[in-house]
Amino acid sequence: MSTQIFHDSKADKAFRASWMVNRIFIYGILIIWAIICLFPIYWTITTSFKTAPDVMKGNIVPWWDYTPKWLGFKSLGLSPNTIFIESTVREEFLKRFWNSTIIAVCSSSIAVMLGSCTAYGLSRFKYRFGFMRNSDISFFFLSQLILPPVVLALPFLVLYKELALLDTRIGLIALYTLTVLPIVIWIMRDQFSSIPVELEEAALVDGLSLWKAFVTIILPIALPGMVAAFIISLVLTWNEYFFAALLTSSHAKTLPVMVASQTGSQGISWWSMAALSFAAILPLVIIGIILEKFIIKGMAAGAVK
Amino acid sequence: MIVRLLSTRLLWGFNKKKIRPARFAGLKYYLLDWVHIIVSSTEGDYLHIVMQDEISARRRYLGRTMIWGSALILLFFVIVQSLHQVGWLASGFATWRPTLYAYLFWASCLCWAQVILYGEQGKRRLFILPAVLFVVSMVIFPLIFALGIAFSSWNLSSPDGRQFNGFDNVIQMWSDPFYWNALKNMVYYTLAILVEYIVAFGLALLLNAQIKARKFFRVAFLMPLMLSPVAVSWMLGKSMLEARFGPISRLARELGWDNPSFFGSPEMARTMIMMMDAWTFIPLMMIMILAGLQAIPKELHEASEVDGATPWKKFWEITFPLMLPVSVTAILIRIIFKLKLADIIINVTSGGPGGATDSVTSFIFREYRDRSNVGYGTFLAIFYLVIIVIAMTILIKLSDRWMKPRH
Q1: Using one digit for the tens of pLDDT, what is the confidence trace for A190-227?
Q2: How many domains does chain B have?
Q3: Nearest-CA distance B198 → chain A (Å)
């Protein structure tokens, strides 16, 4: 009946085709990289439910290739049928987990507190310590980032031995606070410099003292930055291995040290190693999924000026 | 409103007796002076508060007493403990822990005394003083201590204890092929950052494009950074790259590589370590570059499109030059993290085969762990620090000069 009046011109058709190719290309790379990023995590989770034949046959997809068993978590004492039975491995694991939690949370909180005050001071007041001005003091703090842990490790080993701080949580907390402090200061300085000075001026006119204005007015505004700094510190301190391996032996041992010490001894019983690794990375995976926004915010701070 | 605020301030001022009304001729001056005293003007980005604090002589005396008194207590503890350590004094503490408490006491007295001595000015100092004290006592002091250890022969397992040995460690280092090998490896590892940078830039560009499910991809790409290097070294290094049953080895066999071994030859092992480290840290660079990309105003791209720029040209003429500062920051930070690389190496290869994958940190770690050689290990670490500081200074200076606009 009716004939089509409007036709797509050749150029338009070509455009759509090239657009399609472009899309497929972009999504193809994105999906491939997402698989590269996520497959090891998937692998770890599934392996913790495998038995020896499954490992040897290289089965990958649960319920299709193989039937999942609680083997890995049983060896940790965390499977449904062992959770109420006493288990030394579970005790050990929970102790390490608790150590890691306390050390990571405490050191991150202290670092965020110290770091926010310092960053605030440096962004608002002029200081002079001898020849050092504000920029020098900032540089002094940030330069700690360059200091490799190995330089501090051995002196601290000897020092902590003298101070009876070897293999204690407090010793590790102090050291971890030191390692993340520059990062916190960096993030927070960026955060504070984006808050206008007029706010404090108004607060001071209204009769607040300096510290009160800082705590009640500035800190709530800077809270997103503080959360970002806290989470990034948490990630770094939770995963820290080097100092923990050198400075702890039994009491204050953290989870990464436990994972590392099991790595060699387990041979091919991959399911238990997988369960342990999975339990070690789970908290941060959850934090990463839920609080991704803050992590990105924290890492982007200072990159863009 | 402002008048009301100011008048309340005036009353407050009277109550506090901060200023003497007699000093001022008229109300106008009075107000002006008040504004000056309480609020102040901003000079640059700083907050300027001019406060008149009258510190009484008694307060000053109290502040000085606090500082010097606590310092004396600290000194007493140090002397007693050192004498006890040397053996001249029978009584003393088993450890230096009480001295640490005395130090903490002195530090808090010092902070508190700032407020007593300098009033408002002191409160300002209180913002940075704790952190300064903390960092100085945790870094500078151990570093000085480390210098002492570095020039001595000290094996924790030998009964001799610490002995000063001058430059023996230097000579030993000079003829230690494994240390130089580790330093050479660090150069390779650092050069790998360029590849990581290219990958990270590409991914950031893709994430910045018009795509659906951006949040999913962002979270997925961020994941590796969350994982602890120790867990990664098991997940990737020990199981996925395992020669018999690892999925990657299976894949390699499918693809026709008969006998895949990822940690057999030195080059291969080094590449694998680089790839695992890249896997964990690419997200860091990617996020920084992404933040930079999002800060580029859209108008620039639109304008270039109107002018008929091809995507290729658009990237090289607009995006890349604008991203240079961010890129340099990202690379510098990545270098800093790379220089600390150790966890993966310690746990996957422990430096093997034949020290081919050793980083300086993992080498010194084993020097201590296997041989308890504290003196030599510390010297190596100090030497490494010197190299890093020189290299980083040159890098930062160069990048500064390079990035400054040329006119």
Answers
A1: 888 888 888 888 888 888 888 888 999 999 999 989 99
A2: 3
A3: 14
The distance of B255 to chain A (nearest Cα, Å) reads: 16
Q: What's the alpha-carbon Rg for chain B, to the nearest Å?
A: 30
pLDDT digits (tens, 9 = 90+) for A285-299: 999 999 988 888 888
Kindly state whether residues A71 and A111 are assigned to the same domain.
no
Q: Verify whether the Cβ–Cβ distance B124 to A125 is below 8 Å.
A: yes
Q: Based on the fold, state whether residues A205 and A161 are members of the same structural domain.
A: yes
Asked if residue A48 belongs to a domain, the reply is yes
Domain coverage including residue B25: 2-39
A66 bridge partner residues: A62
Q: Which residues of A touch B383 (CB under 8 A)?
A: none
The total number of structural domains in chain A stands at 2
Helix axes A223-239, A270-290, angle to 10 degrees: 170
| pLDDT tens digits, one per residue of A29-62 | 999 999 999 999 999 998 888 887 777 777 778 8
Q: Which of B227, B254, B373 to mutate to test the interface with A (most CBs of A within 10 A)?
A: B227
Query: Are the C-beta atoms of B254 and A266 separated by less than 8 Å?
Result: no
Q: Do B211 and A27 contact (CB within 8 A), yes or no?
A: yes
Domain that holds residue A177: 88-300
Which of B126, B207, B377 is closest, CB to CB, to A154?
B377
Contact B52, B18 (CB under 8 A): yes
A43 touches chain B (CB under 8 A): yes
Same domain, A182 and A269: yes
* Cβ-based contacts of B229 with chain A (< 8 Å): 239, 241, 256
Q: What pTM was computed for the model?
A: 0.86
| Any domain includes B167 | no
Q: Contact A123/B45, CB-based, under 8 Å? A: yes
A292 CB neighbours in chain B (<8 A) are: 215, 218-219, 222
What pLDDT does B15 receive?
Answer: 40
- B221 to chain A: which residues are within 8 Å by CB? 33-34, 37
Which of B150, B170, B187 is a domain's end point?
Answer: B150
| Whether the Cβ atoms of residue B150 and residue B382 lie closer than 8 Å to each other | yes
Helix axes B320-338, B266-295, angle to 10 degrees: 140
Residue where a domain stops, chosen among A76, A99, A131:
A76
Counting as low any pLDDT under 50, the low residues of chain B are 1-43
Q: Does the CB of A40 have a partner CB in chain B at under 8 Å? A: yes
Q: What H or E segment, with its residue span, contains residue B164?
A: strand B163-164
pLDDT reading at A162 higher than 50: yes
